[in-house]
Design a protein that fits this description.
The chain has about 160 residues and is α/β, with parallel strands linked by helices. About 30% of the residues lie in helices and about 20% in strands. The protein has a single domain, classed as Glutaredoxin.
């Protein structure tokens, strides 16, 4: 599991999606906030409840310019959600973010993909709470129009490590 640092971008990854394309976290960097939903089981009742909660609030995330990415260990049959569901078949991405913690996890990443707020295990962070954290991350962004050289250097390193 990574040690989360709000000063640095979260680890990049590339995973296949239910939309037939690979999605890379780095593609969102400097563009928009991202909410990562780590599902502990693809078709379980808690996973479906989490997907339904975030799907119901998807317009609120979009209003703040955020994207939601669900990450499951296997394809989710009939997910029916407006956001991509990614497949982390080997569990490598989940292990980097969550370690061996059981249960769902939610990460709210700011527009630079730095972790702004997260919850691992236990009851999952509600979509309403995640929308508020996205909103706060946008309000607290003091450099949204100006990326410092330190950030640019860090982002360059993250891009080459993919």
């Amino acid at each position: 599991m990574i040690e989360l640092n709000q000063e640095m971008p979260a680890p990049n990854f590339r995973l296949p999606s239910n939309r037939g394309e690979d999605i890379r976290l780095g593609d969102f960097r400097q563009r928009q906030p991202v909410v990562l939903l780590f599902l502990d089981a693809a078709g379980s009742a808690p996973a479906r409840a989490m997907l339904a909660d975030f799907a119901a609030r998807y317009a609120d995330f979009q209003e703040w310019g955020a994207e939601v990415l669900a990450i499951a260990p296997a394809p989710v049959p009939d997910a029916g959600v407006p956001f991509p569901v990614l497949v982390d078949a080997g569990g490598e991405v989940r292990a980097r973010y969550v370690g061996d913690a059981a249960g769902p996890a939610v990460f709210v990443l700011d527009r630079f993909t730095a972790p702004y707020r997260w919850q691992v295990g236990g009851a999952f962070m509600s979509a309403a709470d995640a929308v508020e954290w996205v909103r706060l991350s946008e309000y607290s962004c003091t450099t949204c129009d100006d990326v410092s050289s330190e950030w640019a250097f860090s982002l360059e390193l993250m891009e080459t490590s993919d």
